[in-house]
Amino acid sequence: MAETMNLQVRYRRYRPSVPVARAQARALSRQWRLPDSVADSLEWVVTELVTNAVIHGRATRGSRVAVTYHLDGGRLRVDVRDAASGMPSAGSPTPEDGDESEGGRGLQVVAALADDWGVTPRVIGKSVWAELAVSPKGSKEGMA
């Protein structure tokens, strides 16, 4: 039976935290021996969710973004919590945004990479989470 693993990391709510969170996700993937395909997806999911929390979250000065990782059996759940109000959605960019728009696609990326995702309102703020299916390294499903 697979071991359950957990980790929570807190970041300052400012732009330089995004590459740090991305690197932490990659390092955790190696430490937990996740298949490369899961590690790649996790890295992008964390990047998009932390970017959204940092850039779009309207929270008080000095607030933090908490990233929680939970691996249980064949599921990896990543939860990004911030103190900002407002519920994000993975709506399509508007025609005014154009094809060259740099923003507005983060949750679409998450939806495409994750097996499931959602938003959970909290007393203060919200959590945006994503789940990825994990198959053991070397198994047929884990090889690309």
Write out key terms for the chains shown.
144 residues, 27% strand, alpha+beta, Heat Shock Protein 90, HATPase_C_sf, transferase, globular, five-stranded antiparallel beta sheet
Could you walk me through the main structural features you see in this protein, from its secondary elements to its overall organization?
- The protein is of the alpha+beta class.
- It has a single domain, classed as Histidine kinase-like ATPase, C-terminal domain (Heat Shock Protein 90, 2-Layer Sandwich), CATH 3.30.565.10.
- Helix content is about 30%, strand content about 25%.
- The protein contains three helices and five strands.
- The protein has a five-stranded antiparallel sheet with strand order 1-2-3-5-4, with helices on one face.
- The longest helix is centred in the first third of the chain and has 20 residues.
- It is globular.
- The protein starts with a strand and ends in an 11-residue tail after the last strand.
- The C terminus is likely disordered.
Report how far apart the termini are. 24 Å
Largest sheet geometry? 5 strands, antiparallel
Percent of residues in beta strands?
25-35%
Helix/strand-derived category reads: alpha+beta
Report the CATH topology name: Heat Shock Protein 90
Sequence of secondary-structure elements: EHHEEHEE
> In the CATH classification, which architecture applies?
2-Layer Sandwich
Rounded to the nearest angstrom, the radius of gyration is: 15 Å
Region (Disordered): 80-107
Keywords: ATP-binding, Kinase, Nucleotide-binding, Serine/threonine-protein kinase, Transferase
GO molecular function: ATP binding; protein serine/threonine kinase activity
Protein name: ATP-binding protein
